[in-house]
Amino acid sequence: MKYRITLQKDEDGIYVARCPSLSGCISQGKTRNEALDNIKDAIVGHIQSLKKQ
Description:
By secondary structure, this protein is of the alpha+beta class.
């Protein structure tokens, strides 16, 4: 499944990634690629958590 994400650089230079379709699914990274990798892991974990509920 594909999910849209948003990626923004904050005032401290940290990249913040969000998945708007999954409430509360947010991650970050020092680089753009790190943030993208982290949000992918967060999405998988978020979905697994929803399945358990």
